[in-house]
Design brief:
about 290 residues, alpha/beta, Rossmann fold, three-stranded parallel sheet, three-stranded antiparallel sheet, 10 helices, binds glutamic acid
């Protein structure tokens, strides 16, 4: 079990604890407003988490803007706000647990090496595609212990991957989660192959940090967009491997533009700041997002 940090107040048995977990890599748009309001509407307690592990893309000004926009929308959340960049020790403890049972291996591959290997195998009748694209072809899986040590000693950068096959041997019964929309859902984490749990540029990954944080923050209902539903397959496996509780899930629909396209951070006219500057009121924006009350 991971060490529980005392600063988060865990849910009373009947309380629903939700969270909104944006990455401060740009301004929030109407889709984020929907997601945040959705979390608030479905929970008794709302937590806020800054998913800022990507040092190159995250900026303090976007973090400030997130606070400003959510306040303006009329949302209230509990303190402390968890900033992932301040909790690398928690992720490292989780990696230590997985490594301790031999489920991780270092991967020195560059994107180019992986692409070349995949292209070479492209004549295979069923290319191995996962939710994030072609699966890692396992190049570094069978490096000898000596070679791993030597390459690390040479200062080669490496990621840590989960040996998915081996991880699945630890699981004795089928994994499920309860989705408020989709009902009982069977987890099939193998669709991701040997997923990266610590990146070359930062000693964690989205999958690992989210799973550890939801547990440490006592989240009982994970609400997020349907685009992230595939990730829940990996998160469910990680919960099991790390001995963490399984929250319930509610993957919600995604807002689209008039042209039917998913909203993205680049749609400048639909950022909450732009809407505010154009004279919209919080009420009007909540209506545009389709959720009336804060
Ligand atoms: N940080 C993710 C995002 O901004 C959300 C992660 C999650 O809710 O699990 O899309």
């Amino acid at each position: 079990m991971l060490i529980e940090t005392p600063c988060y107040c865990h849910a009373m048995s009947d309380e629903t604890v939700t969270r909104f977990a944006p990455s401060p890599t740009g301004l929030l748009h109407l889709g984020h407003a929907f997601s945040a309001l959705f979390a608030a509407r479905n929970g008794d307690r709302l937590l806020l988490r800054m998913e800022d592990i990507d040092g190159g893309r995250c900026r303090a000004e976007f973090e400030d803007a997130i606070h400003e926009d959510l306040n303006w929308l009329g949302l209230e959340w509990e303190q402390p706000v968890r900033r992932q960049s301040e909790h690398m020790d928690d992720y490292s403890a989780a990696l230590g647990q997985l490594d301790g049972i031999g489920l991780l291996y270092p991967c020195f591959c560059t994107r180019k090496e992986i692409a070349t290997e995949i292209a070479a195998a492209a004549h295979a009748p069923h290319p191995n595609d996962g939710p994030d694209g072609p699966l890692y072809p396992g190049i570094c899986q069978n490096l000898s212990a000596d070679e791993r040590t030597q390459r690390k000693d040479n200062g080669e950068a490496f990621a840590l991957r989960l040996n998915m096959k081996k991880a699945l041997t630890q699981i004795t019964a089928p994994l499920h989660w309860h989705d408020r929309e989709a009902g009982k859902t069977t987890a099939t984490p193998e669709i991701f192959g040997d997923v990266v749990l610590a990146r070359k540029d930062t000693p964690t990954s989205y999958h690992l940090a989210v799973t550890v944080d939801d547990a440490l923050q006592g989240v009982t209902l994970v609400t997020r967009g349907l685009d992230l539903m595939p990730s829940s397959h990996v998160h469910r496996l990680l919960q099991e491997l790390l001995g963490l509780p399984t929250p319930k899930y509610h993957h919600h629909r995604l807002l689209t533009s008039d042209a039917g396209q998913r909203l993205a951070k680049r749609d400048k006219s639909l950022t909450l700041r732009a809407l505010r500057q154009a004279g919209k009121s919080p009420d009007e924006v909540r209506k545009m997002a389709g959720i009336d009350s804060p």
